[in-house]
Amino acid sequence: MNRATFSERGFDLINMIFLTLLMVITIYPLLYVAFASVSDAGNLMAHKGILWRPLGLSLDAYTNVFRNPMILKGYGNTLFVVVVGLLFNILLTALGAYALSRKSLQYRKQLMLFIIFTMFFSGGLIPFYLTVKGVGLANTLWALIIPQAINTFNLILMKTAFEAIPDALEESAKMDGANDFVILFRIILPLSMPVIAVMLLYYGVSHWNSWFNAMIFLQDRSMYPLQLILREILLQGEASSNLGAADGDAAMLSVTLKYATIIVATVPILLIYPFLQKYFVKGALIGAIKG
């Protein structure tokens, strides 16, 4: 076995130092938010510079967040939108991608041009609102699900992944009497689990973080998703902060409140992501490169 040369060892050392610094730069903002969220508000306001640890352990910010009775309701609404929305997303995207990936589909290129057109041009916010209201979805959670059922980029990604599957599998299945639904659900989708995992992550994060459509279409506060509830809490905290000396405790608490809302909103996604990470790179590459 050949021993590494001095230049190779030097390169490995520099590479390790560079990657370590890159890791610290990437992780530190997350640690800062976590430390700030459990710090004492007064100590945090007086602190200058880098934050390496919590400044006096305090859970007042989290207590204030979860004291809001709408938090659990918001979690429930968001979970409904995420779960039901993902079912619609995966089903409709898979159906569309399968149809567009078939070489026998007439006018396939023309259909793709119309679909890609929607990535660059839209009707605008007012026509979008009038359309959703016109079909009776306004002030319902379905307004957060059905209009976002298919994302054009995700459709193209899944279509490309389906095209990478050998045609011989489809031909042999048809010889055995399988129809298109059997081919899609029993052959294509099981072979496309990496790209399905990527779709779950993309669509799931989109549903979880969505608040703008809820602000537009929902008037009933009992239907508000988590992100819209947290936005209200954050705005209330900023309003308290603007009071300044009139309410010093509330003003200081608002400093840590914004960090607590970030943690509450992102922790569920951070807990789920490691289980999908092993599929993420493979699925993204399969869907991005035509085989």
From TrEMBL:
Main location: membrane
Topology relative to the membrane: Multi-pass membrane protein
GO cellular component term of the entry, any: plasma membrane
PROSITE patterns, sorted: ABC_TM1
Keywords, comma-separated and alphabetical: Cell membrane, Membrane, Transmembrane, Transmembrane helix, Transport
GO BP: transmembrane transport
Subcellular location: Cell membrane
Entries under InterPro entries matching the protein: MetI-like, MetI-like_sf
Pfam (any one): BPD_transp_1
Transmembrane feature ranges: 12-35, 79-99, 111-130, 142-162, 183-205, 257-276
The ABC transmembrane type-1 domain, residue ranges: 75-264
Claim: Aminoacyl-tRNA synthetase is one of the keywords in the record: no
Family: Belongs to the binding-protein-dependent transport system permease family.
Record's protein name: ABC transporter permease subunit
Organism ancestry: Bacteria, Bacillati, Bacillota, Bacilli, Bacillales
